[in-house]
Every structure is written in structure tokens, then in C-alpha cells.
Specification:
The complex is a heterodimer of chains A (228) and B (255).
Chain A lengths: L3 H12 L5 H25 L4 E2 L13 E2 L8 H30 L1 H6 L8 H12 L6 H4 L4 H24 L2 H6 L2 H4 L4 H29 L1 H10 L1
Antiparallel strand pairs in A: 1-2
Helix pairs in contact in A: 2-3, 7-10, 10-11
Chain B lengths: L1 H32 L9 H17 L28 H8 L6 E6 L5 E4 H6 L2 E9 L5 E10 H8 L7 E6 L7 H6 L2 E4 H4 L5 E6 L2 E2 L9 E3 L12 E7 L17
Parallel strand pairs in B: 1-10
Antiparallel strand pairs in B: 1-2, 3-4, 4-7, 5-6, 5-10, 7-8, 7-9
The chains are: A mainly alpha (228), B alpha+beta (255).
Amino acid sequence: MISEANVEAAVETASTPRHIALVRITHWIVVLSVLGLLITGTGILVSHPRLYWGETGGVGTPSLIDLPIPFIIGPSVWNRPFHFFFAWVLVLTGLTYMVGSFITQHFRKDLLPAKADLRWNRIIAVVSEHLRWRRPEADAVSTYNVVQRLTYLAVVFGLFPAILWTGLAMSFGVTSVFPILATALGGHQSARTVHFTCVVLLLLFVIVHILMLCLAGFWRSVRTMITG
Amino acid sequence: MTKFLKRRQFITAGLATAASASGLGTAVYFADRYGLIPPDHTGIVGIGETLTYATQRLLTSGHSLAREFKRSDISKVPIVNGPHPADEKYLALLAEGFENWRLSIEGLVARPVSFSLEELRRLPAENHITLHACEQGWSYIAEWTGVRLATVLDLAGVRPKSRYVVFEPFANPNQSRTVVRALWESIDMADALHPQTLLAYGMNGEALPADHGAPARLRLGRHLGWKNTKYLSRIVITDRRDLYRKGGGTWYGGI
């Protein structure tokens, strides 16, 4: 059954882009820089794949997490400079996205959930629908559902700032000016551990994100993120 | 109408490009003048290195101090990162307790001087309990005793055009000149004159152990472990940008 509202929605979807240019451009730069950060970050991590809590830690002291990979000394030295290059790309792109999103009201229009949607039964309904691998209704595709909105907000305002904070908290130059960045977390090693944990959460997000693209139609989703 | 708009857009774009280019040029000129450009500013890695160095130098202007800790925070196991050099000259000095060791201060100074370990110990000493972290990931807290590098540089009389201080450690035997040069480390004057920058000869209340850099090592409050040169044999003050370790990492290190 085709209702009038559906037709209107379809017409609107066809004429206005699904994603504004700001979102499309920054999205792909973020994808590339996060990929670079993951590769170089792994290069740094393998030189000491143990994680600690507090200020100090090393071989011979108790650890929090022992990753089941061998110690490979060396790559961290030349991976770190590239890690910083990609970090700058990500930070500058993130800033552009933040400022641009406030100006274009992207956060308010596309990411802030409607009050009516912020109910547990709505959220559970969306999640269970997706868990049963049910393709969303055509009109639902033209806008983000409540779970998408909450997740994107958590990634933009929670995960990325946390990764940036914990990265900066490991810098002696930065903590000499803002010691609280390290002390609030319990110390230098805690910052390193939280940095790693946040990256694992980000990876989980990316995996679910890609799975959901497959559900909605992978290439179609990718195309709309490129051409609008 | 469209044609007119297009021409206007074209002129606007042109003006914006010209303004950005001259803005960038001016920015680079002032950045270099105020010491915000690191020696290794070229290439892809150089972009990140320059942004990090300039940002941190602007943030840390005015000698911001690295965090210091309580005696009770001192780590029971100060991690050793590789053994001391096996160089004949170094081993002989180690055997006699560095009695004949002398640290020379050369280069752009008014009075080239050298210090014995005893002479360094007679200069005003300072103790700092700071965190020592390796770029690999491990870290420990230790108390370092030594003389401020600023005090020593003052005695030598650093010339105004000096930009970097180069630290040369004892090498291992049969190392080629390139490998030896690769061990050189350099810091800018902001770090050299920083109140937590020490020529440390003591660690946790005792003489600096051989594996931690005896007879004296550089201790920087605001840097990772690898910038803290161990087994010092010579210090050179220079305005040359190219005298530093080139082992795949960057000069400032970003951290």
C-alpha cells in the first residue's frame, strides 16, 4: 500500500541529498586517518603488548592485560611519527566537522533523537528488528533511526574525544601544561590502557557499522556517502 | 546573470587563494623566527612533526613543569633498557669509578670547558622525582640527582646564535662513524634551559648505575626516554639543524 506520506518522503529523498557535503567529505577523511592510526597504533603497541593501571608498569611488574602477541621491538620508532601525522589529520578534520555541524545544524537535524523516540521499547524494537536482519522500510532509510542517532552521538562526542584525551595524556609536554589529563585517569599507564580500550570500542563500532551497511545495501550506502 | 556570478566567484576564489598563500608564507616566516619549526620538518611525517612541535612550544612557553612525585611513588624496579657500552675506553673508566672521565662542553660557547664527575657534583645539585617512560610503552618513577644543564651552559657561556645542544654518548666498539653519529641526540634551547633538565649523576639516592647511564646522563622532564642520552661523553652547542639521531623516529618525538 502506498500512502501519500510515503510518496512525499520518496520525492523528498530523491531531490535532497541524504548526506550533506560536509558529512560526506569529512567521513572519508576520517576513514582514511583512522585506518592509518590503527595500522601505526598497532605498530607501536606490539613493542610492548602489556597494559597496566596507574603511572608505572613494565616487564617484571604486574599487568592488567597481557595481549597474546609477541614483543616486537623496533616498529614503534618509525610508526609513531606516522601515527602523529594521521592524528593531526583526524583532529583537524574532526574540528572542521564539529564547527561545520553546528553551523549547518547537522547535530540538531540529523543526530539528536526525537523525544518520542527516546523510549526503551522504541530502542529495543529497532535493535531486535536489525538483529533479525530485517531490511528497514524505505521511508526509514531517508533518516537515521534512534539507535543510529544515539550511537553516532556517542562516537562523535564520547569515543573520539576520549581517544584524543588519552593520547594527549601520554604526552609529557602536554601534561606539563595540563597535568589533570593524566591524573584524572589515574596516571600515564592508565591513559595508555584507556586509549587502547577506546580503540577496541571504536573497532566494534566500525564492524557493526559495516554490518548495518550490508543490511541496508552496502554499495548503495557507500554511494550515498560519496555522491549524496 | 550566471556569467556575472561565475566571474565574481572566480575573482573571489582567486583572492582567497592569494590571501591564503601569503598568509601561509607569513606564518612560516614567523614560525621559524620564533623557533616553532623542527629540524626535520620535511615530508609527510614532517607535517605532523611541525604541527606537534609548534603547538607544544606555544603551549609550553614559560617552562611548564613536568609532573613530580612523592618518594613513596618511586618504582621498586627501575627498568633497564639495554646494557652499558662494551667500548674499551668506557669499560676502563667504569672500572676506576670514572675518576678520569671528563665531560666537555664545546661548540658555540665563549669558554669551552670540561668537568670531572667530582666537579659536576660540586655544582648546585637538584633532586627531581619524575616519570621515565619509554616510547615502547613501559614506565617507571625514579629520583634523579644532578646539576641543571642551564647551570653548566651558563659557565661555558652560550653564544646568542645557539639553537641546539647536542649530546654524544660513549659508543660500542667497532661502530662506524655513521652508527656513532646515529646515537647523537639534540634538544632545542627551550628544553636545554628548562629547570627540570639535569645532567644526572645520581639515581634513587645512589650513584647512577652503569646500565642507567653512568657516569652521567641527560634527564628531561618533558620527553620520552630515548631523548635522555645515557653515558655522556661530550656536549656540543650548535646552530646546525642536522646534528641529531636519525634512527627512523622524529627529532622532537611529539611527546
